[in-house]
Each structure stands twice: as structure tokens, then as C-alpha cells.
Write a structure and sequence with these properties.
The chain is mostly beta strands and about 700 residues long. About 5% of the residues lie in helices and about 60% in strands.
């Protein structure tokens, strides 16, 4: 840390000296590019030209040798998305997960959620699942292993949330969304320069949400605020300070249970927990970034983030259904949780040319310190009849405490070279070396007594990729990558041991199109991923315990497309074939399909908005989500039926002189009121999808 501070100080002094010298000589300096003030867009557009998640540099998507899809703010607004889970069906091979181990599935495996390139909390899937979108600019989905730049991440891919940044001009927006189930959400977005020369900028996003649910006893309340300050210290040095506070109160909801080879024939509204259950989460984020541009060829980025997650649980968890197929055994999980993450990323980007080769080199260093503390009590609870529930269980006055205390320290060193040859051949080489030191203590009630475990090891993560563009707008690509995931805090084994790291390997190839001036973009990909030590619910001990699977394999084909055939007409569509199975294991049968992963899935969303004539401002949208049959658990004892969901929307925009722009929209989700199940990983954790819902939004931009 002292070395980093010394480097930052030396850089500041160097640039300050160069500034003074340049002023004396009256010479111009190379400056950081300023944000351009653009006219308000007449029409929306779903396509994006560049992405940063795959390479940590601004790179055209067609030059990236890996499948990456972007959901921008236009898609989020047009679909009336409120939570991260509302957006994922737009991307091929991506589906929501469960409430236990997996918040999202991508290519059959768990996906990692990042925010501006930093890993979110690692041990609370429900909190990630409810990630709100108030200050989100766009979401980038990088498919497959991504450890070469991000270290300890899940094998399915990365979902990187890119947040809004301050603007060099005044902007203000106020929005109100209301809907059925007593839903209401006001939000504001304000950006303003704080001085005359616009070197000091400020932006604030805030929202409040309160809603009931189609599920009995389930309500949700959250509050979010996210201020950002950007200071251009020198013409080529910018410092950004960001903060977030997010509070969410919502009972933990495990959904329904299975009877025989199907979901129990009970109403999807039925809650098998208790009306008195409660769960609350709190996130606090502080992030500081210093960006320095030495020249057109050299760029330095230093970032530090502190992230704290805390939780308070008192809820009834399902354990198993008795042989009578109606009596559900339960237990009470009384727990508090705290996770603290200190993370610093330091990256130097250098552009050089050797003969006819252009190199974009990236050198990086990352240090992460993560600690968790999780005191818990497991209390007995009265069983419940799933067909005729009687609520009200007696809670024991006290119970023995099990306290889990863990710490992870990791150092990561990585480098990457993006090589351009003759303007149509793009090569990518990258490698990362990580060193880990893990410590886990379990004190109190444990089947084998108190446990203290220390483990130190290292990991090498390579990546190779190639893109060849024989014709302008048509690119062929292939890649090989490896990934690993240290699972500290993500689950508990029954015997209290530290989970073995999950390792993965991917082979991928495909074709990318960027035609008609960017009005049609598409990626078609074939892939194969193998992973070892994946997590699965413990089939014997149940509850909150987990086991690891020897080897799993996923392979398939994906197609993503965005298009704007005419001004005002937008399309985003996807299709995926995913074959995900257990490849080798001592507990689960080889060939079993992985739970929650449909073999066939797809989506289609299109909008058309009039931007000329007397009806200017009117628009409409319609969309389909199709998900095939899925296994409900890794033992393949029951299945979830396929479903087809129909959504639609109406829009109207108008300008009130030069004062404000008013946007009104109504989103209709699941118009046919289809009964479906979003996902499941066990017989007692089946998540039902929402029935017909309506959300109306009124937004005023100043």
C-alpha cells in the first residue's frame, strides 16, 4: 500500500512539474479526453460498439476473441427492469438462479457479479439476486472463465455492472414507478458541475422501493443512494470518489417443494415458512480511482475499494418432505453475517508498435483482503402441512451457537497483450498468477468439534485468443481460457472443512457480425467448459450445507443479436442450446443433467417508436421469453416444465418547450398469466415466477 501511495505521489509531482514547465514554454499538454456534450437522442439504440470487461480496455466488440453481450440503459428502461434479474433473459445461455448457492447461471454454471470490475459480496446470493439498477449505465455479460483479469471468479462468466459517472453539464431526472402488488418506487438522478471550469463534477442517484408480492408474507423495502465526485486535478489526471449505501428488508423465500417427480400441486403464492420471518441486508461501498494519462501511449489507473455487507436472518428453512408427501420438516436459521472486502487494483496500459505489429500492453497488480464472521443458531421448528398449513411455531429460548470466522488474503499479478496485425488479425495473450492464504475457524456446535484450518496455495490462469476479419464487419474468433474460484464464505460443508477451489477450462469459437454501420450486431458461439469442485446442495444433510462435485461439463451453441432495421425500430434476441451434465463424481450419477439449466432457451424483444409526424413520441414493445424443460435437482428426481412468457409495453415521450422532456411508459409482464418456475437446485428450493404484473413509469428529464 505504501508503494502504491508513493507511486501516486511521484506521478502527481511529475505531472505538476511538467504542467509548470509547459506553462512557462506556452506549450500544450496531452490531456485526458473530455466527455462530449451531445444532443438528446431522438431514438434509442440497443447496440454497443465497445466493451471493457473482456480486456479492461476500451475495445471494439468485434475485436474481442470471446463472447460478450451488453445490455445498455435503453434496454433497461424500455423493459421497465427494476432488478438485475429482470435483464438476464436478454442474453443467451443466462437464467436466474436459486436463493441458496447460485444467483445466476451462465452457460450452465454460476456467474460472478461485478460492479465496475470489482467482485461483489461473495457469500450472500439473495443480495446479489436483488441488485438494483438505479445508478446502472449498462451491464456487460462476459461468457466463460474470466480469471485472467479478475482472479477469483465463478466459471460461468462475469456480469459486470457499469455505473453512471458525472457529466460535464447539468442534468436532472425524477422518476416514479407504480404497479400492482402495491409497488411504488421513486428515484432521482442529478449531475452538476461544481465549478466554472468544470473540473469538479458531482452526480447523485437515489431510489426508494416498497412492494408486496404474489407470495404470502413476502414484502420488500429498499433504500439506495449513490453519490459520485470527479475531480480533474490536472489536464491529464482525474480523481473519482464513489460511494453507495443499499438497505434491503425482505424475508428469505425458498419457494415451493417437490412431490414425486413434479412440483407440489399447491398455489404458487403459498409460503412454507412463517409470517414472522425477517431478513435484512446492508451494503456500504467506498471507491477511489486515480487515472493518469502520461501520453497517447501510456495510461495508469489506481483504484481502491472498501465493500461491507451485513445481514440479519431469522427464517424458517425447509429440510425435507416426509414419505407422506405432505409433511415438511423445517428448522429455524437465526444468524448474523458480516463480510468486509478491501481491494486495490493497479493497472498500467502501454501502446507500442514493433514493425507491423501494434501492441496494447496491460500490466496489473491486485490485492484483496476479505473477512467474514457468521455466528448462527440452528433451532428446531414444528413441521408444516404443505396442503393445509397452520402457522405459528414455538421458538426455543436459546440454542448453541456456531460461529464461522474466515479470512482470505490474495495477491494477483497479471499481464495482457492485445496485438493487431495488418488491421484485420487480432491476437490476445494473457496470464495471471495468484497467491492465496485462507483461514477458517468454526467454533461451537459442529458434528466433529471446533475446527481451525489454514490453507495457502497459488494459481496460474492463462488465456489465448484470436480474431480474424476477412471482410469488414465479419470476424471469426477462437479462445482458450482457464478460471478458478476460491469458495470461502459461499457455503458450509457438514464437516466444517474449507471448500476446495473450483477450477474450469473453456474452449470457444464463433463468428461476429457488425454490419450496416453498426445497425446489426450478432455473435454466434460454440463452446465447451469443464469444471471441477462445483458446489451442490448436500443431498444427505440438507438445509444450508453443501458438497462439491468432482467434474461437470457444459457445451453448446449460442446466438445473440441486436438490430435497428429502421429509425425508431429496435430488436434484441437470443437463442441457446446448453448441454450441461455431471461428468464424474462419487456422489451423483455420471450423466445427470445440471439443475436449472434448460437445454433450449431464447428471448425476443422489439420496440418501435415514432420520432416524426403528428404521433411523434408514441411507441410500443413486445417480447417473448422461452425456457425449456429443466431438471430440478442434481440427482434428477424431478423436472421443471418449459414455459413461454409474453411481455409488452407502451410509451409516450413529449417535450415541454425547452424546459423538460416527459417520458411515460407502461410495462406488462407475463400477459397470459402463465404459471412457471424460474429455477430450482433442490427438492425444497423451487422458485416460482411472477404472474401477470403491470408497472407504470413517469419520468421527467431537465
Amino acid at each position: 500500500m505504501l508503494l502504491i501511495l508513493a507511486l501516486v505521489l511521484a506521478t502527481f509531482l511529475y505531472l505538476r512539474t511538467e504542467t509548470l514547465i509547459a506553462q512557462e514554454k506556452d506549450e500544450p499538454l496531452i490531456v485526458l479526453p473530455e466527455v462530449k456534450v451531445e444532443e438528446a437522442k431522438e431514438t434509442t439504440y440497443y447496440g454497443e460498439e465497445d466493451a471493457t470487461t473482456a480486456t479492461k480496455t476500451e475495445t471494439p466488440i468485434e475485436e474481442i476473441p470471446q463472447s460478450i453481450e451488453t445490455i445498455n440503459r435503453d434496454v433497461i428502461d424500455d423493459q421497465g427492469a427494476v432488478r438485475l434479474q429482470d435483464t438476464v433473459y436478454n442474453v443467451s445461455g443466462t437464467v436466474p438462479g436459486d436463493s441458496f448457492l447460485v444467483p445466476f447461471l451462465l452457460r450452465g454454471f454460476r456467474a460472478e457479479v461485478l460492479k465496475d470490475g470489482f467482485i461483489q459480496n461473495t457469500a450472500l446470493p439473495l443480495n446479489i439476486f436483488q441488485q438494483e439498477l438505479t445508478n446502472v449505465e449498462r451491464i456487460e455479460f462476459l461468457k466463460g472463465p474470466g480469471s485472467v483479469l479478475y482472479g477469483n471468479v465463478a466459471p460461468g462468466g462475469l456480469i459486470n455492472i457499469i455505473t453512471k459517472k458525472p457529466l460535464p453539464y447539468f442534468y436532472a431526472s425524477a422518476q416514479m414507478t407504480v404497479g400492482n402488488y402495491s409497488f411504488y418506487q421513486p428515484s432521482v438522478d442529478v449531475s452538476v458541475p461544481l465549478n466554472k471550469d468544470k473540473t469538479l463534477l458531482f452526480r447523485l442517484n437515489a431510489s426508494y422501493l416498497n412492494t408486496d408480492s404474489f407470495r404470502d408474507f413476502i414484502s420488500q423495502e429498499w433504500f439506495f443512494i449513490g453519490p459520485v465526485v470527479s475531480w480533474r486535478i490536472l489536464p491529464n489526471m482525474t480523481f473519482t470518489l464513489e460511494g453507495e449505501y443499499f438497505q434491503i428488508d425482505q424475508p428469505f423465500d425458498e419457494g415451493l417443494v417437490a412431490v414425486g417427480n413434479m412440483v407440489a400441486p399447491i398455489p404458487i403464492s403459498r409460503n412454507l415458512a412463517e409470517p414472522t420471518d425477517h431478513t435484512s441486508f446492508q451494503n456500504i461501498l467506498l471507491k477511489a480511482t486515480l487515472e493518469t494519462k502520461f501520453s497517447d501511449r501510456a495510461f495508469l489507473r489506481n483504484a481502491f475499494r472498501y465493500y461491507r455487507t451485513s445481514a440479519d436472518n431469522f427464517d424458517h428453512r425447509s429440510l425435507a418432505l416426509l414419505e407422506d408427501n405432505r409433511t415438511l420438516l423445517r428448522f429455524i436459521f437465526d444468524s448474523t453475517f458480516e463480510e468486509n472486502i478491501y481491494d486495490t487494483q493497479n493497472e498500467f496500459i502501454l501502446n507500442i508498435k514493433t514493425w507491423s505489429f501494434k501492441h496494447k500492453l496491460l500490466f496489473g497488480f491486485e490485492y484483496i483482503r476479505m473477512s467474514i464472521e457468521n455466528p448462527s443458531r440452528f433451532l428446531p421448528a414444528t413441521p408444516i402441512d404443505i396442503f393445509d398449513p397452520v402457522y405459528g411455531t414455538k421458538v426455543p429460548a436459546t440454542a448453541p451457537l456456531l460461529n464461522r470466522i474466515g479470512e482470505l488474503n490474495s495477491f494477483g499479478f497479471y499481464m495482457q497483450d492485445q496485438i493487431t496485425v495488418l488491421n484485420n488479425l487480432f491476437l490476445l495473450f494473457g496470464v495471471r498468477f495468484d497467491v492465496f492464504d485462507q483461514n477458517l475457524e468454526e467454533i461451537g456446535v459442529n458434528p466433529i468439534g471446533d475446527i481451525t484450518t489454514d490453507k495457502m496455495d497459488s494459481q496460474v490462469s492463462p488465456r489465448f485468443g484470436i480474431v480474424y476479419e476477412p471482410f469488414r464487419g465479419v470476424s471469426f474468433y477462437a479462445n482458450y481460457s482457464m478460471s478458478f474460484n476460491r469458495l470461502l464464505g459461499q457455503a458450509i460443508t457438514f464437516n466444517g472443512s474449507i471448500l476446495e477451489p473450483q477450477s474450469s477450462t473453456q474452449y470457444e469459437g464463433g463468428i461476429k457480425l457488425d454490419l450496416w454501420g453498426g445497425r446489426l450486431s450478432s455473435t454466434a458461439a460454440f463452446y465447451r467448459i469443464t469444471t471441477e469442485n462445483a458446489l451442490a446442495p448436500d443431498p444427505v444433510n440438507g438445509g444450508i450445507f453443501a458438497v462439491q462435485v468432482g467434474e461437470e461439463r457444459s457445451q453448446g451453441f449460442e446466438l445473440d443479436l441486436t438490430a435497428a432495421p429502421l429509425p425508431g425500430w429496435n430488436i434484441i434476441a437470443s437463442f441457446a442450446y446448453t448441454d450441461a451434465k455431471v461428468a464424474d463424481d462419487e456422489i451423483f450419477k455420471e450423466g445427470n443433467e445440471l439443475p436449472g439449466v434448460p437445454k433450449y432457451s431464447g428471448s425476443f424483444w422489439t420496440t418501435y417508436k415514432l420520432y416524426k409526424g403528428i404521433l411523434r413520441g408514441l411507441g410500443a414493445g413486445i417480447g417473448l421469453i422461452a425456457v425449456g424443460e429443466r431438471q430440478g435437482d442434481i440427482e434428477n428426481t424431478f423436472t421443471l416444465d418449459p414455459f413461454l412468457r409474453l411481455d409488452a409495453a407502451l410509451y409516450y415521450d413529449t417535450q415541454i418547450r425547452n424546459f423538460a422532456k416527459v417520458k411515460a411508459s407502461i410495462n406488462f409482464n407475463n400477459i397470459t398469466d402463465t404459471e412457471y418456475f424460474a429455477n430450482s437446485t433442490s427438492r425444497v428450493n423451487i422458485i416460482p415466477g411472477a404472474p401477470f404484473t403491470v408497472l407504470g413509469t413517469l419520468r421527467v428529464d431537465f
